[in-house]
């Protein structure tokens, strides 16, 4: 039994449960089981909190921190041009926020604040502020954000009511009290100030359901409810600009916001949540069987991102892994869980199977475009049975 973090409703039993290890968003393994609960009252899905959550984000969570130029790849255009995630995020944010001249903009849970940096580069009139729960990022802020516009661990009381807008990218999925989190930002905005929140959309990226530190999996229904509970009127929920994510824009209300619940939206969210849980249960059981078939034999995993890492967490001890294959040049030549990451064309001649670690909604189309992976003697193993 657990309580829904959005509506407070009781959820009797998990819809998905898997034994340890659990995989985090930064591709580390935690020695905890995975348990996903789906709330049938508001359409929210959630996992147990990870142990010692403060320390994990303070010193354990150094996303994209190692090299200045490192960024996650959002997409590769047909001509080979790479679109980086924070460039794309900054463009969406600029368009959605549509800020007035000389606006004050707070990046809440900023990490290195790359998105804010790129917004300010395009709009030098904007006054940037940052907040995070770690001091790891100060060196990335210094030089372009005034020292008194930087806050760590706690937001100064003087910031209450100061901001024209606040944005928080891919943070709320990590927090144990999402309503308190939204209320905390409400307090910092001016009346009618704008909030931009981005987060994974599990319905479009089902792998998100099993990410250990993504303890909230919002649906449109639960996101609307959470924003209302936090004192915001929703203007836009954009599900298309960043496939696999929600970008929500909401306006600070000065009076309590009525929580209108759309029963159809809730029902859709619940059905989709349960469907994704069923998918992972079936996939885990199927992978176990396939790992048995290839026990001690040479196999490769396609994808060094979340899905490939998840496959590794399930079969890594059973098979002889030759390599992870990945198209991302930033990952090639790296070592992942003790195994090399190589270009897909460099797959070992003697690999007998290739486990496909890609978003199941896109995997077959992506692999279909790679003729060198379709050859005799190489079995392709998909996530779905
Ligand atoms: Zn709920």
UniProtKB/TrEMBL annotation:
Pfam families per the UniProt record, alphabetical: Methyltransf_23
Gene3D superfamilies: Vaccinia Virus protein VP39
BP term (GO), one: methylation
SUPFAM superfamilies: S-adenosyl-L-methionine-dependent methyltransferases
Sample GO molecular function, one term: methyltransferase activity
UniProt xrefs under InterPro entries: SAM-dependent_MTases_sf
Keywords from the named record: Methyltransferase, Transferase
Protein name from the UniProt record: Class I SAM-dependent methyltransferase
